[in-house]
Amino acid sequence: MATLEEKLKNPVWHSLNETHKKFAVEFDGVQFYKPEILTFGAFVDTTKTEKALNEFIKTADTFFLVSENEDPIIDASKVILEKKINGCQMILDTLIDIKITEKIILLTEDYLDEIYKLIWLVMPGFYQKNSFELGHYYGIFKNDKLVSITGQRMQTASFIEVSAVVTHPDFTKRGFAKQLVAHTTKEILKENKLPILHTNKGNPAIFLYEKLGYKITRDMNWWLYHKK
Q: Which of 11, 136, 147, 158 has the most crowded Cβ, counting Cβ within 10 A?
């Protein structure tokens, strides 16, 4: 049984071995989410990635491998590295409680289209509509319009990741994201799991997360590949 620390070092891998096992596909010892669910993969042996990526790229035009510090090996004749995103992992250290003034709604499948449109408006590119199946999503509405959300993504028996933190550009600077992250964090704690999140280094949102009690613990990097 892996320790919490081991799981945090390779969160995609352990999510696919535990809570999200039903979403896993494997090629030569490298694991991926089904591409219609989430475009993430993970590995424990870099010597396996070259062959595995050549196979997985037949089913997904673009995808990420996620690692703390190891560089995947690729076959450049078939797979192209588009970019490396230098990210970091944050975990909840001490919950800093804040006042929730907005009505926060647990989102159902009825809101799939609205969730998808809002995320793609703010962060276009890689969110899959079926990512909704990975965990709970929460939202704030104004004038019957979904304007801010948070979701849950990677999960094991030990942790749940806060993700999809987005607010419509017309409704920023009102504390919606802060309240949603705080609410989602509390919901994770109710399950006796550790709240974690990931972001790119230098993201101004890091300051917001720190004000809620999160701290940076390690690098976590995203390698974005596409089919040649």
A: 11
Please tell me the distance from the alpha carbon of residue 114 to that of residue 119, in angstroms, as a whole number: 9
Whose CA is closest to 137, among 101, 114, 169, 164? 164
Cα–Cα dist 70/219, whole Å: 11
How far apart CA 19 and CA 40 sit, in angstroms, is 15
Contact call for residues 154 and 10 (beta carbons, < 8 A): no
Q: What is the model's pTM?
A: 0.95
Residues of the chain within CATH 3.40.630.30 domain(s) are: 90-218
Q: Which of 96, 204, 107, 206 is nearest to 150 (CA)?
A: 107
Q: Which two tokens stand for residue 133?
A: 């199946």
Residue 228 has pLDDT above 90, yes or no: no
Burial class (CB in 10 A: 0-12, 13-18, 19+), 25: middle
Structure tokens at 184: 């989602």
Q: Which CATH class is domain 90-218?
A: alpha beta
Q: How far apart are CA 120 and CA 126, in angstroms?
A: 8
